[in-house]
Amino acid sequence: MQQQNDEQIRLNIPIEQYQLPQQLDGFAQPVMFKCSSCQVEAISILQHKPGTHTWLCCFTLCILGAFLAFLPFYMKDCQDVTHVCPACSQAIGVRQFKAC
To answer: Structure pTM?
Structure first.
């Protein structure tokens, strides 16, 4: 029969501290962040909204005679992205769609 050892083995592995971003400008995907208003660490919620460049793409497709000119309004990659805190609903950052 083996005896159980109650001693804990301590490993000297450094724990890296990561700084979570507080401003999410430029990110297109949900990001883990620390909210500057409620101090909660969470993953951002994305809200997509057509912006200026979405409208420019639509008008350009209309001028070129494309019958799918409304397509940029249904493609999330062609819209502005707003990151929102799930705890306090505060807007944390915006990534604007740039057509060029």
So the answer is: 0.70
